[in-house]
Amino acid sequence: MAMIDNETISKIREKSDIVDVISSYIALYPRGKNYFGVCPFHDDNHPSMSVSKEKQIYKCFSCGATGNVFKFVQDYENISFLEAVKLLANKAGIPLQIGTTSKKENKNQSLLSIYDLACKFYQNNLYTAYGKEARLYLEKRNISETVMKEFQIGLSLDQNTYLSKLLLGKKIASKDLDKSGLVFQKNGTYFDLYYSRIMFPLYDLEGNVVGFSGRIYKTKDDSKYINTRETDIFKKGELLYN
């Protein structure tokens, strides 16, 4: 699998000013600290997209499209993340050294698979009868179904064994389950870390789910959010949400 190291990706992002890049696709007009333009991701009749030079992000206040410079190019050009990185590197005049996944990273594939499966499980829960209350809660917070799906928001169910049983049913090795941080053992039985929480997945630069932040929505708890502990694939100091 082709890959580009994180240091190079960060360098490309620093050299690719989001206002300059987006203005090469659509017309942007300064308004206050930000720039505004007609959003290309829906049938926009007035400038609904805001672009922040300071934060290096864009957001459409109509359709909810949001992200950084890589995300914009990826969606506008309808290309993969890697192709967007290559395109911006070329524009910035930064040579790329594209390698392949190392043995160390291959060892993490089982963890990535666990998180991918968990994300799909949580997403599916949100759109079942069990997820109705959580969906209503999100809608009251002005989070539409479109946004829920775009950010892959999900739901952990009321009992703390559902994910554990799913993962055990997939014959995943105990050592990988323990390393994932999503489940834990007590008296020889596995339990879920997350239950009765709205789940927000966290991604690495390659778009893999590597962690979660789970928020309470119908109970009182001293911990409004529970975040995944650091693992071999999730380093809190290296990632920002979306």
Tell me about this structure.
There is one protein chain. The chain folds into two domains: 2-92, Alpha-Beta Complex (DNA Primase, Chain A), CATH 3.90.580.10; 103-238, DNA primase DNAg catalytic core, N-terminal domain (Alpha-Beta Complex). Helix content is 37%, strand content 21%. The chain has helices at residues 6-15, 18-23, 69-77, 81-92, 103-106, 109-126, 132-140, 145-150, 162-169, 174-180; strands at residues 2-3, 29-31, 34-37, 49-52, 57-60, 66-67, 99-100, 154-156, 183-186, 189-192, 197-203, 209-216, 225-227. It has a five-stranded antiparallel β-sheet. Strands 8-11-12-13 form a four-stranded antiparallel β-sheet, with helices on one face. The protein has a two-stranded antiparallel sheet with strand order 1-7. Strand 9 (183-186) and strand 10 form a beta hairpin. The chain starts with a strand and ends in a 15-residue tail after the last strand.
Q: How many individual β-strands? A: 13
Helix content: 25-40%
Q: Total domains, how many?
A: 2
What's the average pLDDT?
88
Question: Which class of the largest domain in CATH terms?
Answer: Alpha Beta
CATH architecture of the largest domain: Alpha-Beta Complex
What would you say about this model in short?
This protein is an alpha+beta fold and 242 residues long. It is 37% helix and 21% strand. It folds into 2 domains: 91 residues, Zinc finger, CHC2-typedomain (DNA Primase, Chain A); 136 residues, DNA primase DNAg catalytic core, N-terminal domain, CATH 3.90.980.10.
